[in-house]
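Key result, reporting period 2: structure in, sequence out.
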């Protein structure tokens, strides 16, 4: 593998390397910052590498039961570390979920989405990157950011020493170089040049490795926090030709695509994992994990590096009734997918490998949420918790040691700005208490639903009528919590005019036989 750089990319990388030394010792002030405890010796503080996928569903990995997608490197990561079988995110779309990961807060607290400030993370938020930076970590961001549009909302202003690729866009216009952004949005710095045919998943992986290697040479005793946020496997669905050919052959051997492709539920739900291009994108994603682990081993730091692999929300499995949009995957038997507060939209794969702390091949059935990463990573680093910031986060380190978690934990979801034409969802909230979950539907054509997830993980049997007292109590919990945090008011869609515009776009897209990144999904 060649790591040769063009002059322009060398300039960008050189600037990034210079920043490592200049920025590492800086203190990032914030009103909510807690005093840091006495730092552990550098050799006792682990490096932290986060690999965040975009739109990857809970069943989109082989170890979770997929018989079409192939993820040998991710499966090996699960065998070497701990997998979490009940891992969730705070919101079933990109920006709000990423807000939760960076802040440890439910996005409804900031009225994301639906608030007057739009879908951006306020500059005043004290992020996990800022907290780790203050604790002495070098901090790198590579990939998709999508948490703001202005300079004060970019990774460099939110605790990261270096940013490559992180800008305002929620999707790349192409996964092959030259990369581009949605209309009116931007890709981040460092991706302006490249080689024809270069694949973005590979490029971001290589950029992450370069940053770590450069830091190891410049500051070998300083731990790092590297956050690789892939643009894959988000649309546009594009993949390497050799992987497409492989999975086309595999699908043919399995009998080909089935005619009864969609289930008339929650808009339209894709029933089968049979998208050849999506399978090929997942294969490249798996290559990224393998390449990163090999690089850590080559640098001699694998034993002191935590790896966290997860996704920002469930897979893209649903579309509006009568739509022509190409859908990526199926989350069945979980219900629905991206955009929905059902488990198909909020449940994600998650693996934690912390050598010396996670037992190989272990798994946890405890409920965890992506708000939990913030305090967990601080505890791993031996840094002070920031309870005024990560108010909804619960450290999962006890689970790594075999703990069972809190069986009565209460968790909320709130989706006040649905996208009925794009993903078939309607305005809804939800609360989970232990194994019980209430879905609070704001569309008058739908009633609230109550499920026991232990007995019914697919959310197929509504128990609201047979257990009205529990349903009423949980409904009051949702309403009371939303009122207490000043949540944005729900609406049925994105406004009647927006729905009409979306329908016209869908019609034009079908006529052209393709999608643009902005038409597919703005998140």
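The corresponding designed sequence is given below.
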């Amino acid at each position: 593998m060649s790591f040769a750089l063009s002059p322009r990319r060398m300039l960008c990388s050189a600037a990034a390397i210079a920043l490592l030394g200049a920025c590492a010792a800086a203190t990032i002030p914030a009103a909510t910052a807690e005093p840091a405890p006495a730092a552990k010796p550098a050799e006792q503080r682990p490096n932290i590498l986060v690999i965040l996928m975009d739109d990857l569903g809970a069943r989109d990995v082989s170890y979770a039961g997929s018989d079409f997608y192939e993820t040998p490197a991710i499966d090996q990561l699960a065998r070497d570390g701990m997998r979490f079988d009940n891992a969730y995110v705070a919101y079933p779309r990109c920006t709000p979920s990423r807000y939760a990961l960076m802040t440890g807060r439910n996005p409804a607290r900031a009225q994301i989405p639906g608030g007057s400030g739009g879908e951006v993370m306020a500059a005043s938020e004290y992020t996990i990157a800022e907290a780790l930076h203050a604790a002495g970590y070098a901090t790198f961001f590579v990939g998709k950011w999508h948490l703001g549009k202005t300079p004060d909302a970019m990774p460099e202003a939110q605790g990261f020493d270096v940013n490559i690729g992180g800008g305002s866009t929620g999707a790349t216009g192409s996964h092959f170089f030259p990369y581009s952004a949605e209309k009116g949005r931007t890709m981040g710095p460092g991706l302006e040049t490249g080689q024809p045919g270069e694949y973005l998943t590979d490029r971001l992986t290589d950029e992450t490795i370069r940053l770590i290697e450069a830091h190891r040479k410049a500051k070998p005793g300083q731990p790092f926090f590297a956050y690789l946020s892939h643009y894959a496997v988000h649309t546009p669905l594009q993949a390497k030709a050799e992987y497409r050919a492989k999975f086309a052959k595999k699908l043919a051997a399995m009998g080909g695509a089935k005619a009864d492709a969609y289930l008339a539920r929650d808009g339209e739900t894709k029933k089968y994992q049979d998208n050849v291009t999506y399978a090929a994108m997942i294969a490249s994603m798996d290559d990224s994990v393998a390449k990163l682990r090999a690089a850590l081993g080559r640098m001699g730091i694998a034993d002191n590096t935590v790896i966290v692999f997860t996704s920002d929300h469930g897979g893209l499995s649903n579309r509006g009734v009568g739509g022509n949009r190409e859908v990526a995957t199926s989350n069945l038997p979980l219900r629905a997918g991206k955009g929905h507060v059902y488990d198909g939209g909020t449940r994600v794969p998650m693996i934690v490998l912390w050598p010396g702390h996670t037992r190989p091949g272990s798994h946890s059935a405890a409920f965890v949420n992506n708000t939990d990463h913030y305090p967990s990573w601080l505890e791993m680093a031996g840094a002070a918790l920031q309870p005024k910031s990560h108010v909804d986060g619960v450290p999962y380190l006890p689970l790594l040691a075999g703990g069972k978690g809190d069986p009565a934990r209460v968790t909320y979801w709130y989706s006040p700005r649905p996208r009925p034409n794009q993903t078939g969802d309607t305005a809804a909230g939800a609360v989970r208490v232990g194994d019980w979950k209430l879905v609070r539907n704001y569309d008058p054509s739908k009633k609230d639903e109550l499920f026991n997830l232990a007995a019914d993980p697919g959310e197929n049997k509504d128990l609201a009528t047979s257990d009205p007292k529990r349903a009423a109590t949980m409904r009051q919990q949702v309403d009371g919590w939303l009122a207490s945090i000043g949540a944005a008011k729900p609406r049925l869609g994105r406004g009647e005019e927006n729905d009409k515009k979306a329908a016209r776009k869908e019609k034009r897209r079908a006529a052209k036989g393709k999608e643009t990144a902005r038409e597919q999904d703005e998140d």
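The longest strand covers residues 47-53. Residues 139 and 274 are 38 Å apart (CA to CA). This case is discussed further under Risks and Mitigation.
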